Amino acid sequence: MSADLRSGLEAGLAALALPLNATQIQQLLDFAALLSKWNKVYNLTALRNPQEMLTHHLLDSLAAVPPLLRHLGSLPTAAPRLLDVGSGGGLPGVVFAICCPQLDVSCVDTVAKKAAFIQQAAASLRLPNLHGIHARVENLAGPFDVVSCRAFASLADFTTWSRAAMGPQSVWLAMKGKHPAEEIAALAPAVELFHVEPLTVPGLDAERCIGWLRQRAQ
Fold it and tell me: pLDDT (tens digit, 9 = 90+) per residue, 118-168?
C-alpha cells in the first residue's frame, strides 16, 4: 500500500484517539491490500479505489473500535468472544480482531468464498483470534459476548436471526448510517435498544452510529 494510505490511516487513528502499535498498523494496511487483491477475483466489495477503501471501510470500521473497547472493559471475562454477522470482506470483524487481540472474533457469512477470505486473512495476517465460518447465523449457538454487524440487515432481522448466538448478558452492536428510527420502532418486544451512539469517521462526511441492543429481561 502507498505511503499516502499509511499517512491517511495514521491521521485517522490520531483523530479517533486510537493508539495502535506498528504491527497493528501494518496489519491493517496488509488487510486492505489483501482485500484489494481478492476483490479482483471475488466480489467482496463494490469499492475499488484505495482511498475510498481507507475511508469507507478501514476508518469506518475503526470508528467503532473505541466504543467496543469500552464495552469489553466492562465485561467480567478476560477472554471475550465476538460474532460478526454477514461479515463479507471482513468488515468490521477483521479490523476488530487486529485492534483487540484479547477478543476472539468469528466472522460468519453464507457465501463460502467470503468465509474462505476471512480464513486466508487470519493466516496471512497471523491473527490466531480470527475465524471465518461458512454458515447461516441462525444455525450458530453461543453464547458470544458481542454480536456485531455492519450494513447487514434491518435491526429486527439482525436480532431475530442471531438470537441463538446470544447469552443472558450479551449485547448486539449494529453499525448503521443515519439514526435508524424506523428500524427501532419495528423491533420485537423482547429486544431493547438501550443506546444509539453517534460515530465520527475521519475523512468521511456522512452520518454513522452504533445501535447497542440487548435482550429484554423477562
Answer: 999 999 999 999 999 999 999 998 899 999 999 889 999 999 999 999 999
Of 149, 159, 162, 169, nearest to 77 (Cα)?
A: 169
In this structure, which CATH number among 3.40.50.1970, 3.40.1650.10, 3.40.50.150, 3.40.50.2000 belongs to the domain 60-215?
3.40.50.150
Q: Which three cell numbers stand for residue 84?
A: 460478526
Distance CA 62, CA 55 (A): 10
In the three-class reduction of DSSP (H, G, I as helix; E, B as strand; rest coil), residue 218 is classed as coil
What are the structural domain ranges in the chain? Answer: 60-215
In Å, how far from its chain's centre is CA 166?
17
Residue 113 carries which side chain, given as an amino acid letter?
Answer: K
- The C-alpha angle 192, 194, 200, rounded to 5 degrees, equals 130
